[in-house]
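Sequence and structure are kept together here, with a separate record for every protein. An example record follows, reproduced without changes.
>
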Amino acid sequence: MTINTVYMVAIVLLIVALAIIRATQSYMKASKVSADFETMLNDIDTLLSIEELHCRNNSEQTGVSMKNKMRKYVLTERQQALSGKFTRSSIAKMREAEKARKAKFLDPIAKINLMKLLKLVQ
């Protein structure tokens, strides 16, 4: 091998290493966002469960759940309302979509054959 070939191989390896570092950084950032998103979905699901149990408790004690009355009260008192985007079924769909997105991202990575890559570089 000549010196020029060695330099070329070194440059190619450096470029590959930099690309791997950049891809890893992007993946780590996406993983953090994904973890935060999952935490948010869990919090919303928990709050919906609390509302459901509270309404059931009200129904058992008074015969009326008062769910709609309390939602209207929160709207007038605090100007806050549920958007309707994050229902239990929509949360389940979001989780499935996230699972499919992760599988789609990781599939090409699993197919990389490191030995073939090294042979191409030589």
